Amino acid sequence: MIPLNETLAAGPKKRVVVLLSGDGSNLQALLDKEPDYHYQVVGVISNVPGAYGLERARQHRVAALELDHRVFSSRTAFDQRLVVEVNRFEPDLVVLAGYMRILSPEFVEQFAGRLINIHPSLLPDYKGLGTYRRVLADHKTRHGCTVHYVTPELDSGSNILQASLEIKPTDNEESLKRRVKTMEHQVYPLAVHLITSGRLQLQKNRVALDRQLLDPLGYQLKEDSLELE
Ligand code: GRF
User: For residue 224, what pLDDT is reported?
Assistant: First the structure.
């Protein structure tokens, strides 16, 4: 098996646009890993004015665009403009990183097969918000994050990769979130790299790595073996 973070790709790095609504710690991880990986973040768009993720982009000299959804008359109108703005960056891949707004089917259709998201649960379990609280309330033993392709139905596209951890008896919402985010910051740049370097492909609804179809849950990584660097 070829090491996961091996760069086999030739040619120019692929163009990535990031959509976010908040802090942007995943954007930061993507930016930090750029030198090692086969992508370049060429634009960041936030639907929330003043989102800190925009500041992170500017500090990295990446174009940052604020597009306040509240000034549009409808979701469709906003998403139509969003399509235009995303396309201006000529992206190979559109990456959702804490983008807290449901996308219209029309938007998703425009970028089908080149639109991905990271979600803080082991999908298909715990779609939607409040995953840490719900997992703890259910006394689960494992939690984690999933990188997946985006389809119009919320948190439901094909899984690309999952990173999981064992929940400790001492974990609370805060600690669990911190541990999962640490994994997110490692695996999201890796997943983007695998796609942009051509190693990972979507074949109908299944994901293949180095031409081998993956399990429907996606490539599996564990917190204690996340030695990616
Ligand atoms: C992450 O937990 C991600 O899983 C979810 O939104 C959060 C974004 O965090 N989709 P940040 O803004 O990247 O810090």
Answer: 87
Report CA(128)–ligand 1 centroid distance (Å): 12
Neighbours of 5 (CB within 10 A): 16
For residue 20, report the distance from its CA to the centre of ligand 1, in Å.
9
Query: Does residue 101 line the site of ligand 1, with CB under 6 A?
Result: no
Q: What is the DSSP letter of 114?
A: S
What pLDDT digit, counting tens, does each position of 125-138 carry? 999 999 999 999 99
5, pLDDT greater than 80:
no
Is residue 228 predicted with pLDDT exceeding 60? no
- Alpha-carbon span 17 to 26, nearest angstrom: 13
CA of 200 to the centre of ligand 1 (A): 22
Active site residue 139: no
pLDDT band with cut points at 50, 70 and 90 for residue 40? very high
Q: Kindly report the protein residue whose alpha carbon is nearest to atom 5 of ligand 1.
A: 98
155 vs 186, higher pLDDT: 186
Nearest CA to ligand 1 atom 12: 24
CB-neighbour burial class of residue 70 (10 A; exposed 0-12, middle 13-18, buried 19+): exposed
Q: What pLDDT is attached to residue 156? A: 85
In angstroms, what CA-CA distances link 165 with 52, 178, 179?
A: 28, 12, 8
Catalytic residue among 38, 60, 69, 119, which?
Answer: 119
